[in-house]
Specification:
Helices cover 4% and strands 41% of the residues. It contains 1 helix and 44 strands. A hairpin with a 5-residue loop joins strand 27 and strand 28. It is elongated, with a radius of gyration of 29 Å.
Length: 508
């Protein structure tokens, strides 16, 4: 065989190996709260801070505490990173060297919380003063509902409030004499509302720290948030086109221009450096917008993982039970935990996982009156629907409803086993007939009914509904004529109806 032919064969094999070689590591998802400084990005992943190149690649862990570390911000010189850390049972402001090291605590005033998911976090790091001597953070210490911006020295000392009485995220002008901010506070940032246009919608103002004069620079009914001041322009995120995107406000011309045009994912938590790079979340990944070129580059970042959580393992559901019930004969109990439905023998017998669905959240299970079926709600189809399953774990669950576009609530059996009643978060109450799987909508109100109860003969359904005065009244719906009637006064708050065993009286 000639040397030329050997070389050709080697090149061919090499090309084939490149084509079939598996990917060593894929882009890691769920990268959150990023910041950028030159050739580095910092972000939160799995509750820790990670550092990576601003061109992508493998990330390096900066923190490893069991509590969360969030809202990391580089100092202007890039030597320090300020963040909000959940250490010692509290949320406080910390700094850590960018090269790594022991976090140093800067604030000590007790944080409010833990807050609900929609309440966000207290002592949230916003950024730095332009001289890099103080960290800017938002605090709820003055009010349970309204946040205010404070600064705290990096060397240690007491925090000082900025003059704006209430404020959300903010950013200083290049000379540090003005600040752009939102006077609506921080608590709106974690609400699940989309395209909100109510009284809490965000607007942006420029505040002069010398004269205390405030100038409103945005006035859209949708939300303008996360301001960044670069040169003579102010960049921010807004959902005025239906999705959060980047916009720019020109201080000289007072004109606003849209920069990104995402229609599927929101541009979340944008943050800028002094070189004109803006990093943000998009669909769980990070992108960088360069204000000089107007171009976007996507960062492919891999976070190393030892894979402990990926190993098959047994996890106790004992402390994670979210619902329960008894079989009609009382010999077995029904439990819901970790998204699965279990039945357990009261005395001697096996425990059965009826759904065993790691890809779905099964909940609101109820035993049929004859004990032969269990009805439950599951999102295994992508939307929440009503299903039936056998208590002995034989067979597959049978889907009874379709077209769900809202969170479903508990399916209650009629005592004769012929019908199920259930409601949803859109304020609708339904009755499902099992024989023909016909679904009838009997209520469509602004506040959902959650306290529906069947009469002993299965002919009537009692429930409460809120009137225009927000007071709930008791109603009864009849199977025979499909009509509903209010049976209590609209001037009092009445709820939680329950029938007597004979069906002659209704308690509430």
């Amino acid at each position: 065989m000639s040397l030329l032919r050997v070389n050709v064969l080697c090149l061919g094999l090499a090309a084939l190996l490149v084509l079939v070689a598996p990917t060593v590591s894929a882009q890691t998802k769920l990268l959150r709260f990023p910041d950028i400084h030159g050739d580095k990005v910092v972000f939160s992943y799995a509750g820790d801070l990670w550092l990576a190149s601003s061109s992508g690649g493998s990330a390096t862990r900066l923190t490893g505490h069991p509590g969360q570390e969030l809202f990391a911000k580089f100092s202007p010189d890039g030597q320090w990173i300020a963040f909000t850390g959940q250490y010692d049972g509290d949320e406080q402001v910390y700094v850590i060297p960018t090269a790594g090291g022991v976090p140093q605590q800067l604030t000590y005033y007790p944080a409010r919380g833990p807050l609900s998911a929609q309440g966000g976090y207290d002592n949230r790091v916003i950024g730095w003063t332009r001289d890099g001597r103080r960290v800017v953070f938002g605090s709820l210490r003055d009010s349970w509902a309204r946040s205010r911006l404070y600064t705290v020295p990096v060397e240690g000392g007491l925090p000082e409030p900025l003059p704006m009485p209430t404020s959300g995220a903010g950013a200083f002008s290049p000379n540090g004499k003005r600040i752009v901010y939102s006077p609506q506070g921080m608590r709106r940032d974690f609400r699940m509302w989309k395209r909100y246009e109510g009284g809490w919608h965000r607007t942006l103002y420029v505040f002069d720290l010398a004269t205390s004069a405030a100038e409103q620079i945005t006035n859209h009914p949708r939300n303008d948030r996360d301001p960044m001041w670069i040169g003579d322009k102010i960049y921010f995120a807004s959902d005025r086109d239906g999705t959060l995107n980047l916009y720019v406000y020109n201080i000289s011309s007072k004109q606003t221009k849209q920069l990104t045009h995402s229609t599927k994912w929101d541009v979340r938590w944008p943050s800028a450096d002094e070189q004109g790079q803006i990093v943000y979340e998009l669909g769980g990944e990070l992108e960088v917008f360069d204000v000089r070129s107007g171009k976007v580059r996507r960062l492919s970042i891999q976070v190393p993982d030892d894979g402990l959580s990926k190993r098959p393992s047994q996890i106790s559901a004992e402390q994670q039970i979210e619902d329960w019930g008894l079989s009609p004969t009382g010999d077995r109990a029904l439990f819901l935990a970790r998204g699965d439905i279990f039945t357990v023998s009261i005395e001697n017998g096996s425990t059965r996982n009826l759904t065993n669905s790691s890809n779905a959240h099964d909940r609101w299970a109820r035993w049929s009156p004859d004990g032969r079926k269990i009805a439950f709600v599951s999102d295994r189809s992508g939307e929440e629907e009503i299903y039936l399953i056998n208590p002995d774990s034989s067979g597959e669950p049978k889907q009874l409803t379709t077209g769900g576009r809202a969170m479903r609530y508990v399916p209650e059996w009629a005592p004769d086993g012929k019908r199920l009643a259930f409601s949803d978060t859109n304020g609708k109450l339904y009755v499902l007939t099992l024989e023909d799987r016909k679904v009838v909508e009997i209520v469509d109100e602004r506040l959902p009914a959650r306290d529906y109860a069947w009469s002993p003969n299965g002919g009537h359904l009692a429930f409460s509904l809120a009137g225009s005065n927000n007071l709930r009244s008791i109603y009864i719906w009849s199977v025979s004529d499909g009509q509903r009637h209010r049976i209590t006064s609209e001037m009092f708050h009445e709820l939680s109806p329950a029938w007597d065993p004979e069906g002659d009286y209704l308690y509430y």
